[in-house]
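Re: duplicated header lines in exported structure tokens

Our pipeline writes sequence and tokens for each protein into one text file. With two proteins the header for the second block appears twice in some exports. Here is an export where it did not happen, for reference. First protein block:
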Amino acid sequence: MATYSNPQYSAANYQTNRPRYRETLVDTILAYHKRDNPGAETNVAVDVATGTGIFARQLPAHFAKVMATDISGTMLESARASSASQAIEYVESAAEDLSFLGDSSVDVMT
């Protein structure tokens, strides 16, 4: 089992010390998404292995709905506590198992 999924792992310590992502990263992802299709949808984004949701919290400004997944319930508890956004749905799931997503239901996955 990975360190991050260990219930004794300090999600608060991770949340405090994890570097933040620059908004230019989101801009780059969006530009790539729309590069070949300027009318590409921005309805649903999925942030796989979200940890404490640091990056997921940047996505609602650009997507109608964000699904943030992680294998660690402890990390997701911290993510939920750090986010007031109703646009983010947190799902406990391994990165290899995204069976809860419907076919063609996601516009961008990080």
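Second protein block, exported in the same file:
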Amino acid sequence: ETEASRKKTDEQIAQTGQPNLDPTLFFVKQTISNACGTIALLHSIYNTDVTIKPDSPLQKFQLQAIELNPDERAKLLETTDLFATAHATAASQGQSSLPPNLDTNQHFVAFVQAPDQGDGDEVDGDGMRLVEVDGRRPYPVDHGPSTDLLKDAAKLIKEKYIDTTDSLNFTIITMGPPQAD
């Protein structure tokens, strides 16, 4: 997806909104340089029904951020040492060296499912939406109904990202329960 295409989508969302998108979806703006992986991970964890360990840094941040808007969440993330400490510890244990120039042309986003809010009418409990959550954008992006997160996200990624470029720089990571036998 090109930058121009993203901008056009963002402008359309600003004008028309996204009435089917669940307003409780967790979204935080990315204001920290090169933190897109952390932001994508937070979006992935906080928009699932995974159990977060009580009193862990993840739960503490979630509880502090839950009532804040995306910009306030970003400020909280900037000013809290919950993640700075964890990041420094993990980085010091890493096996790779830091490049001299940390400016990269790479980016992480998350695709999650969120309940379909419909158009104000009752919505079937199974109704879910495929949502792209990218901290560098002003809003999450609702990509429509979703019955299978992995299949729906893979189809969208192929159509919007892989089929539109010759670049081989593309990685997909999934998080989820193990497949049943």
